[in-house]
Amino acid sequence: MDKEINVLALVKGEERFIFLFDDDNRDETLRQLARFAADPELEFTWYDAAMLSRKIRDAVPSDEDLLANDEFDSLSIEDFH
Q: Measured on CA atoms in the order 64, 68, 69, 71, is the torsion positive or negative?
């Protein structure tokens, strides 16, 4: 098996959220986080979605993520004055 499967889990009270994703379904997993955060029946918050999204983007960065990181890395404090 050549594909790497990533596992991300969150436990909130009695609820368990477990996400399995690879490079091919990364974006669908990110969309699922938003759907869970928008569901008032779940204890899954927008903060949870943001934190898990960051972990997914770190684990499986897209070309756009890498480009943004390069741009942010080149900034200095003088850029904000």
A: positive
First to last CA, the chain: 51
Beta carbons of 62 and 47 less than 8 angstroms apart: no
d(CA 6, CA 8): 7
Q: What is the pLDDT of residues 25-35, one digit of tens each?
A: 989 999 999 99
Q: Which residues contact 7 (CB under 8 A, 6 or more apart)?
A: 18, 19, 20
Question: What whole-number distance in Å separates Cα of residue 12 and Cα of residue 68?
Answer: 31
Q: Tens digits of per-residue pLDDT, 54-69?
A: 999 888 777 665 554 5
Alpha helices per DSSP H over 3-62 = 26-38, 46-59
pTM: 0.71
